[in-house]
Amino acid sequence: MRAVLMAGGSGTRLRPLTCDLPKPMVPVLNRPIAEHILNLLKRNDITEVIATLHYLPDVMRDYFQDGSEFGVEMTYAVEEEQPLGTAGCVKNLEELLQDTFLVISGDSITDFDLQKAIAFHREKQSKATLVLTRVPNPIEFGVVITDKEGKIQRFLEKPSSSEIFSDTVNTGTYILEPEVLKYLPKNEEADFSQHLFPLLLDIGAPMYGYIAEGYWCDVGHLEAYRESQYDAIDKKVFVDFAYREIEYGIWMGENTYIDPTAIIEAPVLIGNNCRIGARTKIEGGTVIGDNVTIGNDVELNRPIIGNGVTIGDECSLSACVVARGTRMDRRVQISEGVVVGALCNIGEESQINIGVRVWPQKRIESGATLNINLIWGNIAHRNLFSQRGVTGLANIDITPEFAVKLGAAYGSTLKHGSSVVVSRDQRSVSRMVSRSLIAGLMSVGIDIQNLESTAIPISRTMTPKLGVQGGVHVRLHPERHEDMLIEFFDEKGINITKPKEKKVEGAYFKEDLRRVHSIDIGDMSYPSQIIETYRKTFETQLDVEAIHNSNAKIVIDYVYSVSGAILPQILGRFGCDAVVLNASLRQRAISTEEREVLLIQLGHVVEALKANFGVQVSANGELFILVDESGLQIRGEELTALMVNTILTANPRGTVVVPVNTSSAVEQIARRHDGTVIRTKANPTALMEATQNNPNVVLGGSGDMGFIFPHLHPGFDAMFSIAKLIEMLTVQERSLTQVRAELPKVCHKAQSLRCPWKTKGALMRYLVETESPEKLELIDGVKIIEPHSDNWVLILPDAGESLVHIYTNSDSKEWADKYAQIYRSKIQKFIITQQVND
């Protein structure tokens, strides 16, 4: 059997180690990862290997040559122009793959029994068998769900934490029959997980998953790189060592001298031609390359040290990685999680603090303390995007330097000469960050349409109207007022998709930033009549005459935000009697407690003025809370039901789009009006996309996220919602109290439990496996539905914190309370069991 070794990766997240090495050539225990894979293949009687190369291909070819020194027959296939993806490059080898063959990733450490997997493949007469394993946290991997026979039922590529259905993941090792390659186009980019396997699943080809026993570590990021070394030296995985074991747990190369006063604790690996000085202490877990010189009185606490490194006297290194050829003078301190690239020079008594990365060939002056990464820019994040845009502490994480680089990274994913809209809220910190983003965008040749300080619904409206290719909005985070939130739009005004986010992240991490000549720097302009354009768009979606004749009196609390400078102008044009509260602009964000006080005051004003209703607008024009004529608040699930009822009354047989965790009151209301309900994942982008991509949608969103009117623009809009509500109540001749009385009585409860990140995937798999398949709905999290009723329980992992949310929904309070307790206990027991087993 032949094996295809996928060795074209550039290893972006392993930088700076991969700045001058392809990912499969990064050393683990002083041998390239690819050499460990070849040893695994040899142990499984597979000696014909074709390596697919792209990034720095000569490094691997020069090392392995024809493979004879390593006991295999090596050939190479180089993707010269552009990477063709995992499947595309294998398609190009079709003539060499006439029998069953194995594909294996070039960036993992494993000791799987591949012959057992091959036997399973043949026994099942499978066309494609994926070698699977179980991991504590599957968020970085492709999740695969199989039935009891191992037949694959479903794929989910790199899920968000709320989408995790299982902890069984794809290891990147496949056993394939050659005929599956006929489904792939030649010389086109294609991926096994995204293209070939879903296609085979759709056409019903026999495709199985083999859950392998043994160790597997995807060396995808620096933490995993360190862990794989520690696991290997602790013998948690079977690998071939490059040196002999001179005593238990101590491997040492040839011609190495260790001073008799040095202290060495097993397990330790020390390479060839090393020199270790007096009184040096080397703790267990340390890995030392070839030709390393270590001075006197050095303390090494589990560092991984590359070939040719020189360490001066009295240095201290803790759980860090130092690449080849680096020199450090005396009394240098390198903290845990630091990665120093090749050929650096670190001066005397300098200090590199926790988690810092230093790019190759950098010089750190004597006595310097390094707290930030020594690359272009400031802080390198593992992931830029959260569930909703880029977030971080204002002027700590989200700094001007960070924003410049982020703007350049985003702009580099767009064509040169593209235009984008940029807008912000009224805060000074938002102005600072938006200006920095603009500088980064202009530096890569992107033109700016600067809307300055305005509400986010206006930005989304203007994005398609200005004919730009995207947009950026900067504001304080609606829920965490110490944080910034930076959202990126596509040309329609919808938040960019996950693949586009990954492109921005790739440009950011790889430093793959376009630079243009000075004459090609982007231009900036300031569009005029923005509010007028927005108002005219308003009018196309409203019965303006009904609003003019409504004689409505409403009270609006703007909570000192920028929407207070916009909506009064619009409502005034429509002849509304609007009493405005707290419309001045403030730099300081209002706390949750202050907002609740203002909400109570709003209720008092509504009662005193005998107004039709009151509304508090927040989140820069996206969210609102209603207060009815008696001063009672309408928010959350009740607000969702009220808006759905009001809109479907005017649009029978319409479609509404709501998050998966919204109460069943929505379905009950839709049945009254012969309407349709579409449920989506509980994130803003999913809601925006669903409202645009489905026909006959009249409303989307929820009281917690805001409401979308898809014919207006694709985002949440509190300002239009208020105007539409005035119109609906006028036309339907009803008050909020009357509408509220019509709403279904549904018991909808939510609670949260602490759940470690590494347990989330196993918990979701446990729930899927222990519930009847006909009761399961896997839109987002795991939803257990009681047939022929509106009773359900939803277990939804939190996307940003170590929490899991439990929602129970029923017409019966007793049922909701009972099952809330049942599933709370079930989840708690599982979490405790997992912790005990760990």
Structure description:
It is built from 21 helices and 56 strands. By secondary structure, it is α/β, with parallel strands linked by helices. It folds into five domains: 2-218, Alpha-Beta Complex (Spore Coat Polysaccharide Biosynthesis Protein SpsA, Chain A), CATH 3.90.550.10; 241-370, UDP N-Acetylglucosamine Acyltransferase, domain 1 (3 Solenoid); 385-528, Alpha-D-Glucose-1,6-Bisphosphate, Chain A, domain 3; 533-742, Alpha-D-Glucose-1,6-Bisphosphate, Chain A, domain 3 (3-Layer(aba) Sandwich); 747-837, TATA-Binding Protein (2-Layer Sandwich), CATH 3.30.310. Strands 14-15-18-21-24-27-30-33 form an eight-stranded mixed β-sheet. Helix 16 (665-672) links the parallel strand 48 and strand 49. Helix 15 crosses helix 18. The longest helix has 25 residues, at 813-837. The protein is globular, with a radius of gyration of 30 Å. One of its GO terms (biological process) is carbohydrate metabolic process. Residues 3-231 form the Nucleotidyl transferase domain.
| Percentage of β-strand residues | 25-35%
Q: Going by CATH, what is the homologous superfamily of the largest domain?
A: Spore Coat Polysaccharide Biosynthesis Protein SpsA, Chain A
| Count of discrete alpha- or pi-helical segments spanning 4 or more residues | 21
Question: Any idea what the radius of gyration is?
Answer: 30 Å
Q: Poorly predicted ranges (pLDDT <50, ≥5 residues)?
A: 376-382
Strand order of the main beta sheet, please?
A: 14-15-18-21-24-27-30-33
- Main β-sheet, in a few words? 8 strands, mixed
* Number of separate domains: 5
Query: For the terminal residues, how far apart are their CA atoms?
Result: 38 Å
Helix content: 25-40%
CATH architecture verdict of the largest domain: Alpha-Beta Complex
Return the CATH class of the largest domain.
Alpha Beta
Instruction: Output the structural class.
Output: alpha/beta
